[in-house]
Amino acid sequence: MHTDAQITEVDAAPTEAGATATQAGATRLARPDTPTDPGTTVSYVYALSRAGTALDTRAPQLTGLDNGPLRTVTCGELSALVSSVPADAYSEEGMRARLEDLSELAAVARTHHAVIEAAYATTTVLPMRLATVYLDDARVRSMLHERRADFGELLTWLQGHVELGVKVYADPREAAATPPAAAPPAPTPAPAPGSASAPVRSGRAYLQQRRAQRRRHRDAYRAAGAVAGAVPDRVSALARARAAHRPQQGDLASGPGENISNEAYLVPAERTGQFHQALTGLADDVPGVHVEITGPWAPYSFATPPTAGAGT
């Protein structure tokens, strides 16, 4: 059973939002369990929802991977949003090759995300992890039947909620460029002409300046850690659950400086404004520290059923 204010340790998304779809908040990767012939297709699952909802009407209006049409596969009270994809391209070997091509992987993630967000605009869905693939629709129905209790409970739990992301960044350069809030030191008398103390004092001042810069560099990370630690307390009354992701690096980190904290919160849709307000000004007086709020998204980080695993 799910409880409020739970903390889940999961992998970070490989890209922001467009690849939020790949966060490990979805069902474990499923793979075809027998060799497939070239030219055959497999069933790619984007999301799950209640049967008989707006998803059945919305599906034919959407386009999935490889420009394939979408459909719903239904079993009992559950439906899966599915499209057919080439078996060779989405096999283990095929996906391994795609992982080596970041531009292609990002394109797959964006399409996966776009389908989920379009579906989520009409009804509550459980996002599936990137490349959740089954041999055929019959295997998808079997999965829905086997996991019907877990999925049903989770859909009920997520109803009316959205995911909001909170990232904290440390920017040591900005912190180092910000003068400390202290009185300026008294001016040093100029050395007498010809005195050897001039270069000594100049070198000493340089070393002092460097030490001060390093100190502010360390202080920026400490301050960012303190700000990140304050976030959960500020939003605890507004969030139903919290998920801690791995900090993003390189091009994936959209904010200034280094991403030191990357968390997701499950928030009632009507309380997103209060959530933003609760974090307003949190780092305004902290040089070199920035807070970024993203979303609302479909609940990627909270779509893991109580018992993990998917059929093949």
UniProtKB/TrEMBL annotation:
Signal peptide: none annotated. Residues 12-29, 193-210 have a biased composition (Low complexity). The keyword Transcription does not apply. Residues 1-39, 176-218 are annotated as: Disordered. Its main location: other. It is found in: Gas vesicle. The keyword Translocase does not apply. Residues 181-192 have a biased composition (Pro residues). InterPro entries: GvpL/GvpF. Pfam families: GvpL_GvpF (PF06386). One of its GO terms (biological process) is gas vesicle organization. One of its GO terms (cellular component) is gas vesicle. Keywords: Gas vesicle. Belongs to the gas vesicle GvpF/GvpL family. This is GvpL/GvpF family gas vesicle protein. It comes from Streptomyces sioyaensis.
